[in-house]
Amino acid sequence: MEHVIEIKDLKKSFGDKKVLNGISLSIGKGRIFGLLGPNGSGKTTTMRILSCLIEPTSGDITILGRQISTHKEEIRKKIGCVTESPGVYDKLSLLDNLEFFAACYQIPKAKRASRIEYLLRQFDLWDRRNDPAGRLSKGMKQKLSIICAILHDPEILFLDEVTANLDPVSIRKLKDLIREWAASGKTIIFCSHILTEVDELCHEFAIIKGEVIRLTTPQQFREEWTTYNVILDVGSDVQKSEQIIREAKEVEAYKRSENQFHLRVTDPETANPQLIKKLVAADVTVKYITPLSVSLEDSYLSLLDQEKEAI
Amino acid sequence: MPTFVILREWKELFANRSVLITNLAAPFVILIMALITTVFAQNGKMEFVLTLMKLTNPLLNMAGDDGQIAIARFYFLLFLIVPAMIPLTFATTSIITEKMTGTLESVLVTPISTKEFLLGKILAFALPSVALTWVIQLIFLGFIFASFDNASTHFSIVFILAMILLVPFVSIISLSLSVVVSSKVDNVAAAQQFGALLVLPIIGLAISQVIFLSMMSNPLIYLGLVTGCAVLALITFQISVKLFDREHIISKWK
């Protein structure tokens, strides 16, 4: 896979305060990459360094094959960045805002009007084009700041908490757009506290806390943190059932609570029917057996708890 | 030339009419003050006003025989406060507000260079204030030449040209320094308080017209003053670009 972002041993300190202690990552073209971490973990600092806003203390960063230390201006032409707060000029109309950012991104004058109209229509803001940005709702302002960041059709897009002010319909629409952008070969760095969004959107993600503490995919991460993946209710036949479960080779681990068993089985699709067969053969009444779903959020919180304990 | 930055600043200025009108009115207040004082001094009428002025500013007593013309020169130089102070208010507010509202971060992530961005900002505020100062300078000059027979003796071509040429340089110096200060402090009031210090050399220069009237007629002094200010304007602009600390502005300001 072609890597569009390569980070090696990135360190950043503000005075005596170390924020990043050596982050190394490679992000592939056309990927949606999540950046997770608790408050103060260095997500925004990483984003700011990658979007050429601030300098790293040390480390090598290559973006689109160019060293960030020596090719900032070239890199800036090919990236877009949406920050936490919509950075648009309240006193200016939507069109004036976009004209200004189009000029900043050096978009040829002949192409500006059509590009601006296309994006305003895509984000349902065309009818408000002459209104001052200050009169827009928070969500609309966020949309405007997204448009400002993608005016020049960037190859890499940094999105920091972009869905924070959007309504559910706009969030759905934006998610679809993000997937479309990725499908067309753009790389998205997605920073969010909403883990369901990361779960839905990201191909892979990194959890950082000054350094990368986990680099994985949502699926792998959930599996890794799934202690029990099946729940079994056997009514009153608990004693008999426990003996069968203990001896069943499909069951890797189990925990009993009243009439229920939490099981970890190798593959629920094949293991569950076999287990039911064994239980039924022993005259156990199986009330229900169902997969136990673990969310990314549960897994993430478990990891952070473990990290805290380690400290 | 970053015209798009200039145009954007002007659009924002015009959208903020109350602040704009208040600031634009100030130079005309100075002009009216200058005209009234000079009229009183010229006609010898309403002596009490002159006496009052001399009481509040004893330096005016030292003007000697050419008192009226010294007062006129004092005010003519005092007009330099306009290109120093008016744009400074706008520039400091503009830079600090941009950080507070997050627009600065959105702009700095684009390919626009610091030099381009700051040049656009400085010109956006310098151009109107320079034009405004030239207008009030010309009105005042028209009045002086219409009222004083010996005006050309004390308002030589060199002196007038020097005062006119100093306007853009004073404006650029003031704005460049305001950029430096705005990138270091985190609120508008602190930036503007520091900016007020810029007025002191101008007042000093104006007072020198009264104290050292005969010496200040030397054209070489004005040639040196204009050249010095031109060089200083260039240096302060370069310094403002160098000291515009993106990292400090983006990371430390909240």
From TrEMBL, chain A:
<keyword id="KW-0547">Nucleotide-binding</keyword>
<keyword id="KW-0067">ATP-binding</keyword>
<comment type="similarity">
    <text>Belongs to the ABC transporter superfamily.</text>
</comment>
<dbReference type="InterPro" id="IPR050763">
    <property type="entry name" value="ABC_transporter_ATP-binding"/>
</dbReference>
<dbReference type="InterPro" id="IPR003439">
    <property type="entry name" value="ABC_transporter-like_ATP-bd"/>
</dbReference>
<dbReference type="InterPro" id="IPR027417">
    <property type="entry name" value="P-loop_NTPase"/>
</dbReference>
<protein>
    <submittedName>
        <fullName>Multidrug ABC transporter ATP-binding protein</fullName>
    </submittedName>
</protein>
<dbReference type="InterPro" id="IPR003593">
    <property type="entry name" value="AAA+_ATPase"/>
</dbReference>
<dbReference type="Pfam" id="PF00005">
    <property type="entry name" value="ABC_tran"/>
</dbReference>
<keyword id="KW-0813">Transport</keyword>
<dbReference type="GO" id="GO:0005524">
    <property type="term" value="F:ATP binding"/>
</dbReference>
<dbReference type="GO" id="GO:0016887">
    <property type="term" value="F:ATP hydrolysis activity"/>
</dbReference>
<dbReference type="InterPro" id="IPR017871">
    <property type="entry name" value="ABC_transporter-like_CS"/>
</dbReference>
<feature type="domain" description="ABC transporter">
    <location>
        <begin position="5"/>
        <end position="234"/>
    </location>
</feature>
TrEMBL record, chain B:
<keyword id="KW-1133">Transmembrane helix</keyword>
<feature type="transmembrane region" description="Helical">
    <location>
        <begin position="221"/>
        <end position="244"/>
    </location>
</feature>
<feature type="transmembrane region" description="Helical">
    <location>
        <begin position="194"/>
        <end position="215"/>
    </location>
</feature>
<feature type="transmembrane region" description="Helical">
    <location>
        <begin position="20"/>
        <end position="41"/>
    </location>
</feature>
<dbReference type="GO" id="GO:0140359">
    <property type="term" value="F:ABC-type transporter activity"/>
</dbReference>
<keyword id="KW-0812">Transmembrane</keyword>
<feature type="transmembrane region" description="Helical">
    <location>
        <begin position="74"/>
        <end position="97"/>
    </location>
</feature>
<keyword id="KW-0472">Membrane</keyword>
<feature type="domain" description="ABC-2 type transporter transmembrane">
    <location>
        <begin position="5"/>
        <end position="203"/>
    </location>
</feature>
<dbReference type="Pfam" id="PF01061">
    <property type="entry name" value="ABC2_membrane"/>
</dbReference>
<feature type="transmembrane region" description="Helical">
    <location>
        <begin position="118"/>
        <end position="145"/>
    </location>
</feature>
<dbReference type="GO" id="GO:0016020">
    <property type="term" value="C:membrane"/>
</dbReference>
<dbReference type="InterPro" id="IPR013525">
    <property type="entry name" value="ABC2_TM"/>
</dbReference>
<feature type="transmembrane region" description="Helical">
    <location>
        <begin position="157"/>
        <end position="182"/>
    </location>
</feature>
<protein>
    <recommendedName>
        <fullName>ABC-2 type transporter transmembrane domain-containing protein</fullName>
    </recommendedName>
</protein>
